[in-house]
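Colleagues,

Please find the record for the two-part complex below.
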Amino acid sequence: MTPRIVEVRRDLLRKNDLLAHQLRSRFAAAGVTVVNLVSGPGAGKTALLEATLAALHPGRRVAALVGDLATDNDARRLGRSGAPVRQITTGTVCHLDAEMVAAALDDWDLGALDLLFIENVGNLVCPASFDLGESLRVVLFSVTEGEDKPLKYPTIFNGADLAVLTKLDLAEAVEFDRAAAYRNVQAVRPGLEIVEVSAKRGTGLDGWLARFSARISA
Amino acid sequence: MTFVNTRPYGSGVHELSIAMSLVEAASEEARRHGDVRVEALHLRIGVLAGVVREALAFSFELAAEGTPVAGARLIIEEVPVTVACPTCQAERALASPQEFRCPVCGTATGHVVAGRELVLTALELEDHDSANR
């Protein structure tokens, strides 16, 4: 008995991609720029976002959506800025997908925002496959993680629109090799721009915030 | 050197959500072709799809239980990253996703034309006709 081969063509991420496409249209219609922050755990997404919200709120119309496996620690930290913050608790799911974002934004008046940051679950693997409808995907990596992170996780670096090198204040202590880090980023994503920050000291924040200045109305 | 407790996947289980989509898509297709047993699923997975094949196989086994595709084999074709080289004006497959550089002329290029796909391309079905002959 020989098997019969039937050709099909089913994109396995289609459901997410369709939802992401709808979200992207919704964001465009509302005039909100959406930034998806991805990184490994502990790279400093929350610290950068805290500093970002503190700098922009209340002068600018900015908000954050935070994905976390189990706790609401990050959302509480971000909430201190006074900017609107919502949390998605993903449970055991290691990434945010378009469906979770759509559900979390359901009754949110996006027209009241210029800039929405989505803090993804800390993970350098899974979030890479899931489009959230964002305008900009930013990958963070810290000087303490080692210069070879881009080579170990080429997929997530390759899919990013901007890289942020964090914890600059610790660079000397960990003998961070900047040239090697830049070389590795360029190897997996030629042309990717890198912004260097220390959220703790406030270093480089102006350069980071300048990325959004054109999109933020006063 | 001994590695203990090496799990079939890295830091997550997004392959489980992908496996569930796979089971759903394959079961639909199987039903459309008459309720026959599915012996194998053919997949094309890009090197940049972010999917670990062992993790997908493991997740598929779990997700397929009690469905028309339970017990089917996964036949995975890995699709290398292909970039467009602006110097050669040609598409080139990369030997590794860690070096986005034209393998012929050495120009750095991030213009990916293939290597992100995650597609179910074919089903191998038990053939009823030949079984009844």
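The beta strands of chain A are 4-11, 33-38, 62-68, 85-89, 115-119, 136-142, 162-166, 194-196.

Comments are welcome before we finalize the supplementary table.
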